[in-house]
Known about the structure:
Elements: H1 3-16, E1 24-25, E2 28-32, E3 40-48, E4 60-68, E5 73-80, E6 84-85, E7 90-91, E8 96-99, E9 101-103, E10 110-112, E11 117-119, E12 124-132, E13 137-144, E14 147-154, E15 160-169, E16 177-178, E17 181-190, E18 202-204, E19 206-208, E20 211-212, E21 219-227, E22 230-231
Antiparallel strand pairs: 1-15, 2-15, 2-18, 3-12, 3-17, 4-5, 4-15, 5-8, 5-9, 6-7, 8-11, 9-10, 12-13, 13-14, 16-22, 17-21, 19-21, 20-21
Amino acid sequence: MSSATSAMKLALASLFVAHAQANSFGNSWSLPAPSSPNYIRVANSTLIVPDAPNPIVNELALWTGMGMSNGDLVQSVTINQPGDAEGGCGNVGSDYCVVASTLDDGASGQSIGNGHGTASPGDSVMFSYIYNEQTSNTDQYAYINGNLVSTYSSSNGAHANGFGTAEECQDGTPCGVVPQHQWTDITFVLNEPDESFADNAGGNGYSGGYMSTPDGGTTWYVSTVTIDEYDFS
C-alpha cells in the first residue's frame, strides 16, 4: 500500500470511526490533516443537490465533515428519508433537510444546530466551517442558495484533523441508489502554509478533485469533485 493511500485511509478512518459500527458509507473524497501542529482553519464546500435516492427507504445523508483533535466530527448534513427527516424539517419527500451538527466524542448522539432548511434537487447547499479564535470553537454555517438556514458552534479548543465528503446510510442498508452528484467551490485555509497538503487527497468512486494554491500553501481551491452513483441495496 502506498504512503498516500495509507494516509488517505487514515483520514477517512478519523472521520468515520464514530459511525462505522452501525452505518454504511458509499463513495467519498477526503484529505488528511496537514502536518502537525498545522490545522485547517476554514473549510467551505458546496453541494449541488442531486435527486433523491431511488427508492426512498432509509435515512441517507450527504455531508462534508472535519474530524477534530478531540474526537468530535463537525458535519453539516443534507438528509433524505421517509417520514419526518432528522433535523426538524418534517416530511421532505424527494427533497433534503439541511442542518448544521456535530457528532460529539463520548456523547450519546448528534448535537443538532440552530435552524434548518429544505433543499430541492438542483439547489446549491454551502457548508462553511470556521475556527473562531475568540471562542476557540469551530463555527458552522449552512446555506441554501445563499440563504443562511442553520448554524452551530462546537468542539472547544480542538483543531481540524482532516476533511472528507460522505454518503452515509443510517443503520447499514438499504438506502437505494444515490445519484451522481458534485461538490463544488471547495476552499481550505490552513493555519500555516503547507505546500504538500494536496499530496494525499484521495478516495473512492470520484473524479476531479484537482487542488491549487495561489499563496504557497495557505489557501487551497478545488473546483469540482464528482461523486459517482452508489447503490446501497
